[in-house]
Amino acid sequence: MANKRKKSRVIGKILFVLYIVFLIYFLIFSEWYGREGATQSYRYNLVLFKEIRRFWEYRDQLGWYAMFANIFGNVIVFLPFGYFLPMSCKYRSFFETAFYSFALSFCVESFQLISKVGSFDVDDILLNTVGGVLGYIIFEVSETIRRRHGNKKS
Predict the structure, then answer these.
(1) How far apart are CA 112 and CA 67, in angstroms?
(2) Which end of the chain has fewer beta carbons closer than 10 Å to its terminal beta carbon, N or C?
(3) Is the pLDDT of residue 153 over 70?
């Protein structure tokens, strides 16, 4: 049983590293995500819910895809972070996952501000953190199901 847990943790670490590489590329360098290069000015939003509200209010003009990509995309892109982080660590908690989701998102947003690639947006930090927390919840639910299923086999 301990060997199986160790093997699972190694797989979790590999998936976690691959996910981080993907995340850095996707959030900072991906041309598909509108990262054609640095802008001339700093772009930022420091008002919580401002961009979320703007995307929702102008969804007909901006398009449903833009609204979905901004609001739900920021949540979805951090789901694997919240799932793979506890999978790859021996010690895991809800609050640690929330903190690390927030910290990574803050670092990405800060890099975007400093490099003028993208914009610093507190709404993105909130949505990314929510995604990390939801990923953790999905991990815990799947672990509970796995343990119950494993106990029934024994």
Answers:
(1) 20
(2) C
(3) no
